[in-house]
Amino acid sequence: MKSNIKIIKEVPKKLKINNWNLCFQWCQYFYDNGTNEYSYRFIWRDENNKLKPQRGQARIPSFAQMQDLLDEAKMDGWLSVIETKT
């Protein structure tokens, strides 16, 4: 099902893979059938800061880099409380 996505919160992690940033986001998905839902996602941004959705998948090079993003979101103050605010 197709959807439009509103990014509510995001933290980037600079990685040295094609100068792209791996981002962790809290988003609201709006579906064609009129429903919507909130969800987390990992997604890449290219060197021009454009989102690079690869069929809904983001290749995460290591658990440590994924954990860094989660820690960054927690330090930013939104990871542990965002679900209760939507």
Low-confidence stretches: none
Main β-sheet, in a few words?
4 strands, antiparallel
Number of strand segments = 4
Order of helices and strands: EEEEH
Label the overall shape: globular
| Count of domain modules | 1
Mean pLDDT: 86
What features would you describe in this structure?
This protein has one helix and four strands; from the N terminus they run E-E-E-E-H. A hairpin with a 4-residue loop joins strand 2 and strand 3 (36-45). The protein has one helix spanning 63-75; strands at residues 3-17, 20-31, 36-45, 51-52. 15% of the residues lie in helices and 45% in strands. A four-stranded antiparallel sheet has the order 1-2-3-4.
Detail the topology: elements first, then pairings.
Layout: E1 3-17, E2 20-31, E3 36-45, E4 51-52, H1 63-75
Antiparallel strand pairs: 1-2, 2-3, 3-4
What is the gist of this entry?
By secondary structure, the protein is α+β, with helices and mostly antiparallel strands. The protein has one helix at residues 63-75; strands spanning 3-17, 20-31, 36-45, 51-52.
List keywords for this structure.
single chain; 86 residues; alpha+beta; 4 strands; 15% helix; 45% strand
